[in-house]
Amino acid sequence: MSEFLSPFATAKFLEGVLEALPVVRGNFFQTSLFSGFETRDTKTVNFDQDFAVNNVSAMFVNAKADVTPIELGTYGHKELYFAYTKEGWSDDDFDTLNQRQIGQAFGQVNVLANNLVNLQRKAAIAELRIQNLFEVTSTNLAKYGSYLAYSEKHPKVLYDFGRDVITTAANLTSKELIPSVNLTTTAVTTPWATTSMPVVATSGGFTAGDKMWTKAKVTAGSATPWLDVVKMVQTSRRYSGSPQAIIMQATPYNVFNFDVETNYKDAASLTVQALLNISRDVLPQIKNVDGLTFRRNISLGDGTVLPVYTYEAKLNDRTSGVEAAILEDGWVMVIPASNLGKKIYGRIQHKAAQFAAMPRFVHRWTDGKTMTDEYEMHSSFLLGHTKINSLVSWKVS
After folding, report:
1. 3-state secondary structure string, the chain?
2. Tens digit of pLDDT for each residue in 240-291?
3. Domain ranges of the chain
4. What is the pLDDT of residues 73-120, one digit of tens each?
């Protein structure tokens, strides 16, 4: 007797779930620049920047000699408003909920259970999107020392923390500390350079691009990636005291590694010794986050050993779906201590939240006619830095 329409033929067995188009999710910059967060009930946050030269020694004078009275230096003041973001979601219709959901066995549809699962998934996506916004904003802060909060649904608000930018080849040679510079022949254009907002860190490059990182220039002796990185680390250390890692994109890392292996073999061997002395479990100790790839440790000859990472995290465009890197190629950065960054949450601009300051607020209401539940996740935030010159960022290729 044949087994016509047996359970084996009608009830398919689900072996597992295949993830579609998996990508590396990045959250390095938002976790390495900021340690924790705080909330403020004020409408704005105030940052003062001191321009005084305070590191001056006293001098020997005669008891009856006149001296110049001490005068306090000038300072810059920035009053910054919070930026706002929110994501929304709602119940699915009956036809959608009456179908098998991802990961479910066949023939086991539960409409109410599906609704709860889908709402949970949408809430998780909303949180992920806000975290991605933090990452993009943090990356822009690292690149430019500033960032812009803007969309067709948000006014233009520029957050500029006043990082020093070297704009001439003469200054590149003469200056001991260089927080930001563009070594290429192409201007580094910030996302807001074409708007009415001030242009920040767009100067650029040197006319011939002599210092740009390429293997040919390294061989010719005109580009010095190793010495550039040493200067970057020295700059970060002078302003912060504690650089924690070096971030390079793929192209500059390949040129840097070529320079080390070609011209600084002693430094390369020191790196090997450092690797032997550090446990594999402890090696990427800066952060265990997606988006980073550990490349090597470098020894700077003064007892300092810093890890070098590349950062390959990407995001999909909100409307087109096109994938693009969060940090485009060509950048080299030195990341200082995380306690120098400020992540501040402001008031939620909604009566149901009592206008209180908090990291997130989810508002829920029901459409009286359709009985559909609607949700919105709100966040009001500001990302700042108290020693922006220690967050060193060079465009090298």
Report:
1. CCCCCCHHHHCCCCCCCCCCCCCCCCCHHHHHCCCCCEECCCCEEEEEEECCCCCCCCCCCCCCCCCCCCCCCCEEEEEEECEEEEEEEECCCHHHHCCCCCCCCCCCCCHHHHHHHHHHHHHHHHHHHHHHHHHHHHHHHHHHCEEEEEECCEEEEEEECCCCCECCHHHHHHCCCCCEEECCCCCCCCCCCCCCCCCCCCCCCCCCCCCCCCHHHHHHCCCCHHHHHHHHHHHHHHHHCCCCEEEECHHHHHHHHHHHHHHCHHHHHHHHHHHHHCCCCCCCCCCCCCCEEEEEEEECCCCCEEEEEEECCEEECCCCCCEEECCCCCEEEEECCHHHEEEEECECCCHHHCCCECCCEEEEEECCCCCCEEEEEEEEEEEEECCHHHCEEEECC
2. 878 889 999 999 999 999 999 888 876 655 555 555 444 444 444 444 456 8
3. 25-48+76-395
4. 777 778 888 999 999 999 988 888 888 887 777 777 888 888 898 899
Q: Which CATH class is domain 25-48+76-395?
A: alpha beta
Prediction pTM value: 0.84
